[in-house]
């Protein structure tokens, strides 16, 4: 995997709390056996007026011309709640997003994002108000996401965000998490020798 | 230092401490067709093996038909995914319980039923309802597909420790109020994201008095409050439940296992990051009115108005939810007509759920305009129910009696609702479109679901069945 350091692009606003993974990618698209091709089904129920994805809903944020090509998605509390389906970050990334900024993100969704080089950022409710305001007044405003410095810059404003160091390093270096763990093979084997006899 | 059960299970599984991260050993890995194909593909691409196929168990549940045992009954794409699981399990020597096998069923129903889950274990599955297994005092949580691949390859997972939350349900539960009502009331109190970043320990008299299956219902929905996991300390009921199950410790090790399990209680002076208390006597049969499980009220309460909420986000969520659900503020439940009833899912499809539902079903008939289905959680549950002639009661009342699977909880098969359909459902999520685009889901207990089927609208199940 390639590493993530910086991202520059427009942001699309989904000003709503509790956006669950069933909205991000509904169940009928979970029957795939590969990781690719989920972007066209992203937010299916909101984005399309029909079941066959022929007719776009012109009122939905992501179909509006002014938000085309956005690389950052803005949302509110508890983004990505619900199912553990990794198809959610696969769909968001395949659609073109590289970063999700929300007031808070659900735990499993957050890990799934990290494992897919999709940067999840949680910022306070007040800062989110500012970010939504930036996009409302100028949909073309450019967001600069700087992971090494942990900042989101928009116009003259700059906001610091928190991320666990190990998540940060894995994102930046694009490390193979399994390969890293396999380096501890001896420790794992030693642990296994001491497991209870009934397990 | 005084420890919680979460601390004890966590500490017993540390392989390596890596700064703020911990490499945890995983005792049990449950797998199913939907969240594993890409994980096995990743292993194959990197020439990696499954480290412990003996600790890994698979079943088919999410995308299978509940009308036919044929893998292609729900179309070629579903069949390909099911066949891929079968091929991957065969190639990696993993025990699979496919459609047609006596041990097949919903992954969170068969795990406990087979004795695969013991107190003190770490348990993972690519499914957010893995918290179900916390009922045994196991640390059980849902993971994504990349993590499934990580566990397959290493039998470990890197984790940061969550905060701890104690939820005490004090006193005795009123008669006719169920485990489902307890967990819905808890989520209603703390909110849909109220436990994000936490592992919950449920305790108190009302929890201790629950059977193992009822405890599974409680722990199952921990994720619906955002929790990483939810668990309950093992006690004599846990030990009795496990005795003589297929994968319980053998006779030779039984006493050692039991004495270890008995040590898995939270020390009396342990400190939790957050403590929440509910009085069991205040809990009524619950129904969700909105589009997340935290939007829930009692059967005797009227549908709320957005003005009832001070928080602007909750207020706006309520406006959206009422519109989507086709409900009006102030409406009473007897005026909310249902078109479908679903009894099943990893929350409420076990034998005790079906017994409780059948008891209510015996007192009437499903209204003619309602489609009502009962989907047992596993082949074993189905067979036991048939032995007790519960299927006869359901069919006589007008319910369809189906084959085991996840079914209408998420509608990955053909058990899908149409726009505008309104369903009384014993499942766990009432999200927009969860059971089919434009469909409306109300989460309830099995007894309440049957009461809705017999009445045609929502009714208090306590007035039936005696």
TrEMBL record, chain A:
SUPFAM superfamilies (UniProt xref): LeuD/IlvD-like
Protein encoded by which gene: leuD
Tree of life domain: Bacteria
Pathway note: Amino-acid biosynthesis; L-leucine biosynthesis; L-leucine from 3-methyl-2-oxobutanoate: step 2/4
Cellular component terms (Gene Ontology): 3-isopropylmalate dehydratase complex
Molecular function terms from GO: 3-isopropylmalate dehydratase activity
Organism classification: Bacteria, Pseudomonadati, Pseudomonadota, Gammaproteobacteria, Alteromonadales
Quaternary structure, from the entry: Heterodimer of LeuC and LeuD.
InterPro entries membership: 3-IsopropMal_deHydase_ssu, Aconitase/3IPM_dehydase_swvl, AconitaseA/IPMdHydase_ssu_swvl, IPMI_Swivel, LeuD
Protein name: 3-isopropylmalate dehydratase small subunit
PANTHER family per record: 3-ISOPROPYLMALATE DEHYDRATASE SMALL SUBUNIT, 3-ISOPROPYLMALATE DEHYDRATASE SMALL SUBUNIT 2-RELATED-RELATED
From TrEMBL, chain B:
Keyword Amino-acid biosynthesis (UniProt): yes
Record-listed E.C. numbers: 4.2.1.33
CDD domains registered for this protein in UniProt: IPMI (cd01583)
Pathway in which the depicted protein is active: Amino-acid biosynthesis; L-leucine biosynthesis; L-leucine from 3-methyl-2-oxobutanoate: step 2/4
Gene Ontology process terms (BP): L-leucine biosynthetic process
Keywords: 4Fe-4S, Amino-acid biosynthesis, Branched-chain amino acid biosynthesis, Iron, Iron-sulfur, Leucine biosynthesis, Lyase, Metal-binding
Pfam families in the cross-refs: Aconitase
Enzyme class, UniProt record, top EC level: lyase
Cofactor(s) the protein needs: [4Fe-4S] cluster
Residues binding [4Fe-4S] cluster, per UniProt: 346, 406, 409
Domain of life according to the entry: Bacteria
Enzymatic reactions: (2R,3S)-3-isopropylmalate = (2S)-2-isopropylmalate
NCBIfam families from the UniProt entry: leuC, PRK05478.1, PRK12466.1
Name the record gives this protein: 3-isopropylmalate dehydratase large subunit
Organism ancestry: Bacteria, Pseudomonadati, Pseudomonadota, Gammaproteobacteria, Alteromonadales
Recorded name of the encoding gene: leuC
